[in-house]
Amino acid sequence: MARIPEHDPARRPRVLSGIQPTSGSFHLGNYLGALKQWVALQETYDAFYCVVDLHAITHNPPEPDVLRQRTRAAVAQLLAAGLDPERCALFLQSHVPEHTRLTWVLECLTGFGEASRMTQFKDKSSRGNAEHSSVGLFTYPVLQAADILVYQADAVPVGEDQRQHLELTRDLAQRFNSRYGHTFTVPEPVIPKGPGKILDLQDPSAKMSKSLGDAGRVNLLDDPSAVARKIKRAVTDTGTAVHFDPVAKPGVSNLITILAAVTDRPVVDVVADFDGQGYGALKSAVADATVAFVEPFAKRTNDLLADPGELDRILAAGADRAGAVACATVAVAYERVGFLAPTAGRR
Ligand code: TRP
């Protein structure tokens, strides 16, 4: 029986996460909800981060040129945010075919009803009507499970909206393990707690996302004047004092959260600065600090995009590192299922 090299108790715990190349620019919510954590985790974990381009064609697939451009922009932004190719494997999902090879096996372990209960599928498909949704959108969570399990990941940083997909991933790992023998690490979600979520600037009852209007969203690649304008026009709350109270003052609290995040300071310290001052002073400070954050970020991203050869080299190295782990896992999983080993030439 092939052995899984990953089941070595001495290895560093492993983290895996993925992000879709959904638009030409990530926004502040992506930065705080995902990118910033990824950067921190690469210091202590054996980190694998992938841009999930296969997932990007499950729903409203972009034109091929647009997908290419978004994928490069996603990689450049992850590097600009601080991912270090020496400290993590940064790669494209489509470059490691073991994700889809494992997906098939996991699909055969997933109940049709079980997949039908995924709320993200229900949300996305009912807007466009389930009858017209792709089968890829339906099996999206199974591909996500394969993304995770193929690396034997211990920890998966994700947003609250991914909790159900992580539960499915854990169920599939346990189901495979009990049917075929212990093969997969059962991963734990790492979900940021507390008021860390960035909300829409125009509608602070919703989280910042690309599906709402542009005025409510600070894109990391927006030009500085647009960033300042969006922040100055942000919806605030009744009253005048700058207090952190997400229930009574969601708009103001959101601005405080943004300021704390882009300046890397605790919320209480930020609030203390505005003692006796009003919303106008807060907005100016948030606008200045956010511009000071996004301007060099956009410059780093554009410098990276200007050197596609270097991006390709980083992605090739990432895919090599990722592929080695993924191949070892799939070889064992296929053997456990009962597939005969391929002849040498086809391996
Ligand atoms: N579904 C995730 C999201 O929308 C993206 C994703 C795909 C992912 N594969 C993953 C996240 C694996 C974590 C691990 O945010």
Rounded mean pLDDT score: 94
Q: SSE string, helix = H, strand = E?
A: EHEHEHHHHEHEHHHHH
Structure summary, number of beta strands: 5
Helix content: 40-55%
Small-molecule binders: tryptophan
Question: How big is the Rg?
Answer: 22 Å
Mind describing the biggest β-sheet?
3 strands, parallel
**Continuous helix count:** 12
In terms of structural class, how would the helical and strand content be classed? mainly alpha
| Order of neighbouring strands in the sheet with most strands | 1-2-3
Proportion of residues in extended strands: 5-15%
Distance between the termini: 17 Å
Net shape: globular
Outline the low-pLDDT stretches.
Answer: none
Question: What does the model show?
Answer:
By secondary structure, the chain is mostly helical. The chain has twelve helices and five strands. The protein has helices at 28-41, 64-81, 98-107, 112-116, 119-128, 135-149, 163-180, 224-232, 250-263, 267-272, 279-305, 308-337; strands at residues 14-19, 46-51, 88-92, 155-157, 188-190. It has a three-stranded parallel beta sheet with strand order 1-2-3. Strand 1 (14-19), helix 1 and strand 2 form a beta-alpha-beta unit. The model has no long low-confidence stretch (mean pLDDT 94). The chain binds tryptophan (TRP). Tryptophan binds at residues 16-18, 20, 52, 55, 144, 147-148, 156, 158, 162.
